[in-house]
Please model this.
Amino acid sequence: EVFLSHADLDQFNGLPALLDRFAIGQVTMTPSFADKTTPGVSETLAVLQERGVPIRILKAGDRVTAGDVQIDVLHPPASGPDGNENARSLVLDLHHAGHRILLTGDLEGPGLERVLALPAQPVDVLMAPHHGSKLSNKSDLAQWARPRVVVSCQGPPRGIPVLDAVYTPTGAQVLTTWPHGAVTVRSHGTGMVIETFTTGQRIVLRTNREK
Model:
């Protein structure tokens, strides 16, 4: 299965190539994905239809399972919120073996405000929204999520590292794909292991939230 966070091109433009290389049984997207009238969205939907790949729409309040993994959908609702596609990013709260991973897409603006209004529950790993943007990664999100590790897909930092300034005061360790490369998270019954590809860093998180 492939989850598409929202209908901005950089989030889904590799899907046709993935369909050529892997057997994909289902593609999950947001309620507003098909509403964006761009050539990329139209082509992607046409390719999925041509190849007979089912589409599933998820909205806030839905819960799905995959083996021992439970996925709670926190955002977006069936309609809205207003704003750009980032504000309607798919936000998934993954539960496995007592651990939590929060995937945020490019969440920002009214979408971020809506999520922060939900009951706060500490997470083990947070995917920093919108590639570490300072518009999305603020102290209120750090306090709300209380992550132990923050992972961000981004290029070289410009100026003062935003994520370190926001999340380190709450006790989080920040890993960005620049310079660490790919970050792999493995969940086990006794804890989580987080490894970086380029720098070879290894972080072990125990289930009692003690490193």
Observations:
- The helical segments are 15-21, 39-50, 109-116, 139-145, 162-167, 177-180.
- The longest helix spans residues 39-50.
